[in-house]
Amino acid sequence: GSLHFQTLLFWRRFVHGFANTMKPSPRWVDFLHRHGVFKLTFYRVHFSYFIIGSLVGSGLLCAIEDIAWVDAYFLSTSCMTQTGLTTVNFSALNTASQVLCWLLVIMGSYTLLLLLPLLVRLYRYRKAYQEREQNQILRAGSRTFFEQSRHHELYADVVEYEAVVLLIKLVIGYFLVFQLVPWGMFWAYTSNYGPAQDILDRYDVSAFWFASFHSVAAFSNSGLTLFPDNLIPWAADRFVLLLSCVSIVSGQSLLPVFLRLIIQMLRHFTSNKSPYDYLLDHGRNVTTHLFPARESLVLALLWIFIQIVEFICFIGFDWHRLGDISTGQKLLDGFFQAVSTRTAGFNIIDFGLLSHTMLLLYLLFMYISSYPLVITVRQTAVVEEERSARSQHTSRYFQRTLRTLLFRDIFLLYLSWFAITAAEQSQLDEDGNFDMFNILFEIISGYGTVGLSVGYPGSTTAFAARWSRFSQLVLCVVMLFGRHRGLPHSIDTAVNAIPRTERHKIEMVRRSQSQARIVANQNGAEGVRRAMSDQGFQTEIQHPVPRSNTDAFLRL
Question: What number is the average pLDDT over the span 371-399?
Answer without folding.
Answer: 60
